[in-house]
Structures are given as structure tokens and as C-alpha cells.
Amino acid sequence: MDIDSSLLLELYRAARVMPVAEFPEFALGLLRPCVGFDSARLLTVEFAGSATLIRSSTAYNVAGDHVLDWDAISRKDLVLSAIREQVNRPISFHVPTLFASPEYSVVRDYAERYEHTNGLCVALPDTESGYTDGLSLYRARSDDHFGVPEQLKLRLLMPHLIEALKLNRELAAVSRPAAPQGALLIARTDGSVQYCTNAASTLLAKEWSDWHAARLPARLLYELGRPGIQHYEGAWLSVLAERIGDLLFLRLRPQSPLAQLSPREREVARKYSGGASTKEIAAALGLSPATVRNFVQRIYQKLSVGDKATLASLLAASQH
Q: Could you tell me the pTM of the whole model?
């Protein structure tokens, strides 16, 4: 089965020029006449052992306050298990039948509320990130099933859709003036994560052990809730965010070891690692040598180092 080449050309053209906040909806709108669906959801998931972690989620043509409703039922969504077992193979399903068990009543309620009656899903692994990208399409009418032709079309289109989305995000990230380096995360201002690199996910999970990956941590979202570029300094990470429209571009870095030290401890650490003796530091700072030695011991304990050379190497690395 062939796909209209003009559709693919328009998909990649738009990926290069459209704002990242608008492109996913535009791209799905291009696919809609070809495959035929009423609503859709794009997902990026990580399969960690038996767990399925949602790294990002974007809804298309879903009315109402679907974000919170989706959060409430996402961990019960059997479609996620299906795409794990059938990677690269589109699967069609009847939602009320798939979720017929009483334990999935909340999922059936969600599907009825948002008219997700018949579905078609497909998933592709991303070897670079280790994540899996998934797309679920839905039709509202109970007799309007997805058939083999739609499955074949989706199988052909999905790699192009994911590649175009990746291209659009990458171009948006590098086009920011003087964009700082660091792990990248893109989220909407309501907290829903649109794109998250492995490095960003690792840092957030270290800072917030109970982090639910589909949304920004509540504390971070609160701190970054004002317009313009904002900073967040945590115990394990440092975040620089830029707000553009309803999107937040977050660059995350591991926190500098110096952040664990008090201002006076940082001053002592810099002088001591630079070769100054305890007597020289005491004279420069107006302290007794014994007080300086106590500072050095606390610095060693906080930074888990045992000698001046290791301290100097650690502080030098934190400057890069």
C-alpha cells in the first residue's frame, strides 16, 4: 500500500518551520484524512521491568479537562501492555470489550466520556533514547471499526510521524538564542510532559523519588510558573527554564557540589584546594587555624572526599 508522497513532504516541511507547540496537532491533522479517526493520543513510554512509565503524553481533538482524567486512568490502560507485546505491529481493539472487567470501570467511564469506542494503536522503539513511542487513534461510533487497510497505513506512516516530531523538537531546542547545555525536557504550562530525554528523567527521579513521569513535579511547576526565564536549584539538580507560549523548555544539569556548602565553606574550600595553608586561610578570613581545620573537615564530609587533591579535582570539575 502506497502513501501519498505529498503528505510526507508536507509533514517534514512543517516540522522544520512550525513552533513545537503547534506541530503535533498539525501533524495528526495531516494523518487524519488518510487513516480516518476522531481523536488520538501520542505517548512516549519507558518499559522498566514489569512497569510501564509514561514519559510524555499529547492528546489530539480530546475535549474537556482530559489531562487530569487521563492521569487518573493511565496506569490501568491495557493498550500500553498491548504495544509492549506487539511493537511495530498495529493493533485494533474495541474499548468496551478490552476493558470489560469490573476493575477497569474507570477506564470505561473515561472512554465513554471522551468517545473512545474503537481504537488502533502502534508503537516504535527509539534505540537512541531507549523509550518507545506510541500512537493510539480512536473512533466514536461503535460500528466504525479500524480494519486492515488502516493498520497498513498506520504502519507505514508511524516512522515518518515520529521522525518528524523528533526533528521539530530538535530544531526548536537548538534555535533558542544562546541555549544552555544540559538534559532537555519540554512541558506544557499545565505540567504535562511533551518530551523528556533519558538524562532529564534520571535527574528528576533523583531529586523527586516519587516523581510521576507524565507530569512535572508539583514543586518544580510551581517554581517555574512565572513568565520568562526561571531558575530552580534543588539538592541534586539545577534547572533553567524558558517559557514560550504554553510551553516550558527546561535544561537540567546535575547540581554543583558547591551547592551543598555554605558561603563560608565554599570560600574556605576554594582557598584550601588552591594550595593555601590553614594558617594562610585563617589570616585572610580573620579566623583561627582551628576554626579553618573544622571547616575543612565539614567540607570533606559533605563532599565525601578525603584529601586536598580530590577536593581540588572535584571543584575544578564543577566549574565546567
A: 0.65
